[in-house]
Write a structure and sequence with these properties.
With 112 residues, this protein is α+β, with helices and mostly antiparallel strands. It contains two helices and two strands, in the order ββαα.
Length: 112
């Protein structure tokens, strides 16, 4: 079961002057498809491989030429782009654990 819940919507961009569809190449409409992924983590440091979910969203969009933007909408999350390699992820987890102390009194955790 995929723990990522998704919601999609698409938007066809219109040209500024004549109401015609804008284009990135002559004759092709500019289309933006947005999808919000929600994922609840279970650990303080957790890596989630989004490759299949992003690939599926691209396939469902019907767009075959363009770009995909993946971003975090939360301050305590990050998007890390690299191949999924266990040794690399272990090294990265060790680095984060050495730099970010879990028991520190971080200001963003203070409700005042």
């Amino acid at each position: 079961m995929n723990p990522l819940k998704t919601r999609s919507q698409s938007l066809k961009l219109m040209g500024p002057a004549n109401g015609s569809a804008g284009s990135c190449r002559s004759g092709l409409p500019s289309i933006v498809v947005g999808r919000v992924l929600h994922h609840a983590t279970r650990q303080k440091i957790e890596f989630v491989n989004l490759t299949d979910v992003v690939d599926e969203a691209i396939g469902e969009s019907g767009i075959s030429d363009g770009m995909a933007l993946v971003q975090s909408l939360h301050s305590t999350a990050a998007v890390f782009v690299n191949e999924w390699q266990d040794a690399l992820l272990n090294d990265f987890r060790t680095l984060v654990e050495q730099v970010v102390y879990g028991d520190a009194s971080w200001m963003h955790n203070d409700p005042r």
